[in-house]
Design goal:
By secondary structure, this protein is of the alpha+beta class. It has eight helices and twelve strands. It folds into two domains: 1-120; 128-353, no CATH class. Helix content is 54%, strand content 15%. Strands 9-8-7-6-10-11-12 form a seven-stranded antiparallel β-sheet. It has a three-stranded mixed β-sheet with strand order 1-2-5. A two-stranded parallel sheet has the order 3-4. It is rod-shaped, with a radius of gyration of 53 Å.
Length: 354
C-alpha cells in the first residue's frame, strides 16, 4: 500500500511537471503571438494614419479641383458671353468697314470726276461753243516769225468783243463760289474772277497748241501783253488764287484769281512752290501784266511746312488737271491736290482691306 502510494505521488508529480512544461510552452507561444499581434496592430495603425493623411490630402485636392472647376465653368460662361458680344461687335465692325469702303469708293469717284472736270475745261479746242472764238484767236492773237508770239492782251480783247463780262456767281447760277465750266461761261457771257481765269488759261492752252502745230517748239513760243514791251517769261499757264493786298487789285479787299505763267510745269503738289516762286501774273479781266511773284510784297507764296506770316498769300492753284490747295490748318502745312488725295485714298483702301 505504501509502495503504491509513493508511485502514485511520483506519477502525479510527473504529470504536474509535464503540465507545467506544456503550460509554459503554451504561455510562451501565446506571448510571442501576442507581441507579434501588437506589432502588426501598431503597423496597421500607422498605415491607417497614413491612409487618413492621404485621404485628407485627397479631400483637400478635391476641394481645390472643385473650386477651380467652378471658376473655370464661370470663366467659360463669361467667355461664351464675351465671344457672342465680340461676334456681334465684329459684325458691326465689318458693316462699318463695308460702309467706309463704299464711302472711300465714292470719294475716289468724285475726286476722279473733279480731275476730269479740270482736264475737260483746260482747253477750248474741243468745245463747240468756242468755234468762232478759236477762229478769232487764231487770226488775231498769234504772230509768227522766228518765234510764235501769243498776245495775251489780244485774248482779253477777243473775250470782250464776245461779250464776256465779270458776273458774280449769284447773278448767274444763284450759288456762291461755284466754278463755271467753259460752256456755262459762254452761255452766261461771263463769270467771276476764277471763271475768267479758267477761260483765259483754256484759250492760252489752245493757242500754245496752235503754235506747236505750226512747228514751233516750246522754247520758241513767247508770250506778252501790249502794256509790256518785254516778253513775259514762262510757257505754262495756271490759275492762281489768293488774298492780294488791296493796292494790287484796285483797292478792293478780298480773294482774287488771276493767271500765272511759269517756266516749269506743276504735276505734284510739292512742285507748286518751286514753279510759282518766279511766276509772272497776268490779269485776265484786262489782259495786262500784274507783277512778278519774286518782286512783290502784294502777295506771297509759301512752301510746304512754312506757316504764313501775312494775310496776303496764295492759297489755290488750278492746273490742267488738278486743283492744289495750300492747307495750313493742321500741324502738317502743305500743298495738297486731288492727285495726292487719290494716292492717300488708295493707301487707305489697301489698309482697310488688309
Amino acid at each position: 500500500m505504501g509502495g503504491n502510494s509513493k508511485t502514485l505521488v511520483i506519477s502525479l508529480v510527473s504529470i504536474a511537471a509535464i503540465a507545467l512544461i506544456a503550460l509554459g510552452s503554451v504561455y510562451f507561444i501565446f506571448s510571442s503571438k501576442l507581441a507579434s499581434t501588437r506589432e502588426e496592430l501598431s503597423l496597421t495603425k500607422q498605415a491607417l494614419q497614413t491612409v487618413q493623411l492621404n485621404l485628407n490630402s485627397l479631400k483637400a485636392n478635391y476641394e481645390t479641383l472643385k473650386a477651380n472647376y467652378d471658376k473655370s465653368r464661370k470663366a467659360n460662361e463669361l467667355l461664351k458671353k464675351e465671344s457672342a458680344s465680340l461676334n456681334q461687335s465684329m459684325k458691326e465692325i465689318e458693316l462699318q468697314l463695308d460702309q467706309s469702303l463704299d464711302k472711300l469708293h465714292d470719294f475716289d469717284v468724285r475726286v476722279r470726276q473733279s480731275m476730269e472736270w479740270f482736264a475737260a475745261n483746260s482747253n477750248i479746242r474741243h468745245s463747240d461753243a468756242y468755234n468762232s472764238t478759236r477762229e478769232k484767236l487764231n487770226s488775231t492773237c498769234i504772230k509768227t516769225d522766228a518765234n510764235c508770239y501769243i498776245n495775251l492782251s489780244c485774248v482779253y480783247q477777243v473775250n470782250y468783243d464776245n461779250g464776256i463780262r465779270y458776273i458774280e456767281d449769284t447773278s448767274s447760277i444763284r450759288k456762291e463760289d461755284f466754278m463755271l465750266n467753259l460752256t456755262q461761261i459762254d452761255l452766261f457771257k461771263g463769270g467771276d474772277c476764277e471763271d475768267f481765269s479758267l477761260l483765259f488759261m483754256a484759250e492760252y492752252n489752245y493757242l500754245f497748241e496752235e503754235c506747236g502745230s505750226r512747228g514751233f517748239g516750246r522754247e520758241n513760243i513767247t508770250t506778252g501783253t501790249t502794256d509790256m514791251e518785254e516778253k513775259l517769261t514762262g510757257q505754262y499757264m495756271y490759275v492762281l488764287c489768293g488774298l492780294f493786298h488791296p493796292r494790287a487789285i484796285g483797292n478792293q479787299l478780298g480773294g482774287h484769281c488771276v493767271n500765272a505763267l511759269t517756266s516749269s510745269p506743276i504735276v505734284a503738289s510739292r512742285e507748286v512752290f518751286g514753279s510759282m516762286k518766279h511766276a509772272v501774273l497776268v490779269e485776265p479781266q484786262t489782259g495786262e501784266y500784274m507783277l512778278h511773284m519774286n518782286k512783290t510784297e502784294d502777295i506771297k507764296l509759301f512752301d510746304q511746312g512754312m506757316p504764313p506770316d501775312t494775310l496776303y498769300y496764295v492759297w489755290l492753284i488750278i492746273t490742267d488737271a488738278d486743283l492744289k490747295i495750300f492747307y495750313e490748318f493742321s500741324e502738317k502745312i502743305e500743298w495738297v491736290g486731288y492727285a495726292e488725295l487719290l494716292q492717300e485714298g488708295k493707301k487707305l483702301n489697301q489698309t482697310l482691306r488688309g
